[in-house]
Amino acid sequence: MTILCVRFQLPPTREAALPELLGLLEEFTPVVEALPPDRALADLRGAERYFKRDAVELASVIRVRALALYGVDCAIGAGPGPMLARMALKDARPGLTCAVPESMVTDFLVDRPVAALPGVGAATARTLCEYGLDTLGRVAAAPLSTLQRLVGAKAGRELHEKANGVDRGRVVPNGVSRSLATERPFTRDELDPDRHRRALLSAAEELGSRLRALDKVCRTLTLTVRYADRTATTRSRTLGEPTAHSAALTRAAYGMYEALGLQRARVRCIALRAEGLDPAEQASHQLTFDPTDDKLRRIEEAADRARARFGPLAVLPGTLAA
């Protein structure tokens, strides 16, 4: 096992702490790939030789340091490759490392549903299940030509390799993605468009508040709507100007939602992501003579001061006018 997939237990309001936690991983290896908002991959091949400890032992040290220095617990998956480390993370819990030794890869994969394999979407999983290939063990035992006939030549070969535990992925060092995200899950599958819009309003206000707290503006807003059948629709919109203004984010979110034309859709979760973050001091702002816009900005400033003094729940998202 040489690869760790680490999920830090970061609340949404502490997402900005991810770069510091990545720095902690980089004390062990320079080969660290950020997976915002709260995950990272780390290749420990050199670290195992240098520290004379295996990946599981190093994972324990990483967890202790994250708790001691940042007060953040983490769940860790370990495996011989990035794919297997990601899959192992799904079985891990805070404070625990789920490790998949190379000798146990086949046993780890054999009974798992085909949809558990990274890169297998709902449509591919449905096609495979229609032919009785509902577990990775059955996919691994299927002839390569059969898989290629079902899902295509390239996809079939990749699927056959992955189901047999062949992990050709690698950890690619990168910086933290310049984005912030939040989501609003529903307690039950929600059909009411008014509740969808209220969730969008709440999410947009939270993103605006967090952007202003970081002195950032965003250039792009991405909306993801997840449905009861576990499918999802994603839409992105480039804003007219970089902004952290909650009203502008809300308008963009509403526009993307309306463009979807959902009719009695059973929605399980709505998520918003602000992307392309830049320092607010470098952003230009088109002046407006609209008194309503000026009023909303003054309300935002007052709400931000209240949150800074009394905490993030001093003004609940969704209570400001849009």
Count of alpha and pi helical runs: 12
**First-last Cα distance:** 51 Å
Order of helices and strands: EHEEHHEHEHHHHHEHEEHEEH
Cα-based radius of gyration, to the nearest Å:
22 Å
Low-confidence segments, given as residue ranges, are none
- Overall, the morphology is globular
- What class do helices, strands and sheet pairing give? alpha+beta
Main sheet: which strands, in order across? 2-3-1-4-5
Q: Please summarize the sheet with the most strands.
A: 5 strands, mixed
Mean pLDDT: 85
Strand content: 15-25%
Give the total of beta strands.
Answer: 10
Q: Give the proportion of residues in helices.
A: 40-55%
Keywords:
single chain; about 325 residues; alpha+beta; five-stranded mixed β-sheet; five-stranded antiparallel β-sheet; 12 helices; globular
Q: Can you put this structure into words, describing what you see?
A:
By secondary structure, the protein is of the alpha+beta class. It has twelve helices and ten strands. The chain has helices spanning 18-26, 45-51, 55-70, 82-89, 105-109, 122-130, 136-141, 144-151, 153-163, 193-213, 246-260, 291-310, and strands at 3-8, 32-35, 39-43, 74-79, 97-99, 179-190, 216-227, 232-243, 267-275, 278-279. The longest helix has 21 residues, at 193-213. It is globular. The chain starts with a strand and ends in a 12-residue tail after the last helix. The relative contact order is 0.10. The mean pLDDT is 85.
SSE layout and pairings?
Elements: E1 3-8, H1 18-26, E2 32-35, E3 39-43, H2 45-51, H3 55-70, E4 74-79, H4 82-89, E5 97-99, H5 105-109, H6 122-130, H7 136-141, H8 144-151, H9 153-163, E6 179-190, H10 193-213, E7 216-227, E8 232-243, H11 246-260, E9 267-275, E10 278-279, H12 291-310
Parallel strand pairs: 4-5
Antiparallel strand pairs: 1-3, 1-4, 2-3, 6-9, 7-8, 7-9, 7-10
Helix pairs in contact: 8-9, 10-11
